Amino acid sequence: MTRVAAIDCGTNSIRLLISEIDEDGKVRDITRTMEIIRLGQGVDATGEIAPDALERARVALEGYVRQMKFEKVTRVRMVATSATRDAKNQQEFFDMTAELLGQIQSGAKAEVISGEEEALLSFNGAVADMEPDRGPFCVIDLGGGSTEFVVGTADEEILGSHSAYMGCVRLTERIMRTDPPTESEIEIASEYVAERMGEVEKIVPMSKARTIVGCAGTFTTLSALAQGLERYDPDAIHGSELRFDALRVLLKQLVSIPSEERALNPVIHPGRADVIGGGAVAVEGIMQLIERTSDARSFFISEKDILDGIIAGLVSESTPH
Predict the structure, then answer these.
(1) Which residues does the UniProt record annotate as the domain Ppx/GppA phosphatase N-terminal (predicted)?
(2) What is the arithmetic mean of pLDDT over 37-60?
(3) Sign of torsion over alpha carbons 121, 115, 8, 223
(4) Which of 143, 246, 247 has its CA nearest to residue 196?
(5) What is the pLDDT of residues 259-268, one digit of tens each?
(6) CA–CA distances in Å: residue 230 to residues 226, 233, 243, 286
(7) In this predicted structure, what is the pLDDT of residue 319?
(8) How far apart are CA 294 and CA 172, in angstroms?
(9) Cα Rg of the chain, angstroms
(10) Where are the extended beta strands (E) located within 75-146?
(11) Distances (CA, A) of 172 to 61, 178, 237, 255
(12) Where are the beta strands (DSSP E) in the chain?
């Protein structure tokens, strides 16, 4: 038995997945966890990772290293996405990850991956449990700083992908600064999202997608809210369907209430309450894009994402061909 780990450090959260690979190459999840660290705090404005954000990342990663040691992990891959791609002081972050991850695997450190690779990893993870005949799929990974769109088939033929410079933290910090946001802020944010969706429409063949898959925290939280869950339940969320018409009612409610009130809902992580309004505006723009370009009128929600894609890559490397 081999145990491997995947870590995804995005603009808003840092997440860990530890999996076990048996002799036949079969994979079993051991633990999956997430912490909100807001690494992207202020990066949009200053171009640098804030010292307190870097410290939050260090503390969270130290905890993950302790977990990996306890679970006897021998290989780890950590990817860092939008916030670190944009930061001038990213080397400090990488040095910190090298110091900590080197305790698990010699030479390991965070890698900044391109939006295109991020899209591919998210796609491979998100469609792993989907029936192949429901493809081609469009996987949408809505993050804090960027949103990845990738259209592909069940056998991993990628038909097109694009990383849009748009996410729930970026929209909140850049535009939707009032709590709750003003009508003017919502309008400006919606226009910004529409511009990004215009770029996606030119690059990604959305019309070829039969099934739209939403992954990452905004989508999974929306599913929990739509189902009226009393606690966050990954099993109830994974594979659920969100229809556009009902979802629009929920999005309007979310944007209109202050973050303090959102945080009272047990399925909304306290670290997501202040930015999910930005996520709601992004989702509305995404729905408008889908309505223009395809016949789909719902999202299928996946709890699997880039972490599962990273694990699949580690499994492939360790399995004899």
Answers:
(1) 19-293
(2) 89
(3) negative
(4) 143
(5) 999 999 999 9
(6) 11, 9, 21, 27
(7) 63
(8) 29
(9) 19
(10) 75-80, 111-112, 137-142
(11) 26, 9, 25, 11
(12) 2-9, 13-21, 27-36, 75-80, 111-112, 137-142, 147-152, 158-164, 211-215, 241-243, 298-302
Residue for token digits 């990845």?
A: 148
Q: Which two three-digit tokens encode residue 153? A: 């088939």
- Structure-token match 């449990």, residue found: 129
Tokens 């996410």, located at residue: 167
* Per-residue tokens: 129: 């449990």
279 vs 118, more confident: 279
- For residue 123, which of 90, 153, 83 has the smallest C-alpha distance? 153
Cis peptide before 258 (omega within 30 of 0): no
List phi, psi (to 5°) of 23: -60, -25
Could you tell me the two tokens for 103? 């305790």
* Residue 82: band (very low, low, confident or very high) from pLDDT cuts 50, 70, 90: low
Q: CB neighbours of 261 closer than 8 A, spacing ≥ 6?
A: none
DSSP-based three-state secondary structure for 118: helix
